[in-house]
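pasting for the record
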Amino acid sequence: MKRETSLLLMAVAQTPLLAQARANIIYIMTDDHTAQMMSCYDTRFVETPNLDRIARDGVRFTHSYVANSLSGPSRACMLTGKHSHKNGFTNNEHGIFDGSQQTMPKLLQAAGYETCLIGKWHLVSTPTGFDHWEILPGQGDYYNPVFIHQDGTRAADSGYVTRIITDKALQWIEKGHEKPFALFIHHKACHRAWLPALEDIRLYEDKTFTLPANFHDDYATREAAAKTEMEIGKDMDIVYDTKMFVSPEETPRTRLSGSYQGMIGRLSKAERKQYDDFYVPLSRAFYEKWGKDYNFLPLQAQSSIGGSRDAELLEWKYQRYMRDYAKVVHALDQEVGRVLDYLEEKGLLDNTLVVYTSDQGFYMGEHGWFDKRFMYEESLSTPLVMRLPKGLERRGDIDEMVQNIDYAPTFLDLAGAPIPDDIQGVSLLPLLRGRTATAADKQVIKNWREAIYYHYYEYPAEHDVRRHYGIRTDRYKLMHFYGHDVNAWELFDLKQDPHELHNLYGQPGYEALQRQLHHQLELLQIQYDDPQR
């Protein structure tokens, strides 16, 4: 997309909203919450009335993507408005975010905003650019979690992490602010191991979730997909992920059983009884049925049981996974509702941009997987809905292709702050003005990007997803897996093959399309100055 910086800034200055009072920004980001588990995107699985409320009263982006489908790198892209190779945080395994670099929160501070971060940080270094922050160490815990405070102290809060993060965020707003504020509410939910709020522990137990159409993918013609280790059947830990735990003595040991015991060990005695009253009977029934057959070797050595028993166990694991994930989403949706109700009660909704998104998408059994990382649709895509302040009149669906590198310039644009030339994303404000759009906005929309660029770096690492980069247009996707033991290209026609099962690369009749996509890919690598070309 061609950025007309001077025209955009001129348009911002003419916007009534910014001429009168600059809008507050509330950015709510979850971890691993995927669009298919949000009912304004997909009604098959769960209901999320409060998240849907944001979309109903504002806008829903139908083509929202990430630049690198992994938690830390995704967060770095959001903070800087730059791809991973430019912000320096390419992967979780070896990365430390350079907090001295230019970031969007620092630029908001310079523009007169008060900034706050509550919740998951996951960038190793100490947060910078925030007037106030309280963060979870690492991944954090669901139950009675520890928070790191700005003075360096650590203290545990009693309760469920999703509710606590919301409490802290609302308490910060309640203090009052003479300046416009930007509040970043970063939830741990819906990250693995999907531990529900205790009051939600029996939800969804009567629901049978439909298997995705590509659940039994055989990965034919896709070498990197076949080599990964994130299959529900063989790679999902029966203790850590599906919570089949009775006691250390009665439960066979798995690679992650110690971590699981640590997580539920944070519960008080009364809380643990409530937890065990539900999960222990399920666990006993599981081991009575499967205990002699199931192979409790380390995950990489687990073998299939074979035949119908194998298929039955696979689908059983899928249902347990889906039910627990859905419970975590339910608590999250309730807490988002609390934020919206508070803003309405305090008269802040009309002057606040409320953004809801996730750090990336997630596989809910598609391709037989859980987790993310790949450039395939379910993890490349991320939900994005916004409730807009007065002055931004767009409503309904926005179909243009947007990416998480666009959040930083959008917030700066809304604040009336200059957008530095080295920011690689583009402001979404021209898409949000609706009937108040200026001639400059319309020109920007006319020249909107025709493709997005993606690059994943973390290998070798958990789940064994090979490094790859690629391009997605409105219809096609071209990916290159490289390094170590793989050097393979993949091409998909997303209109004819939305489940990405048929790799067309190298097949007769696609030569011209391949040349075109290779050319577009090279142009994006030049535009974003990615040396991987």
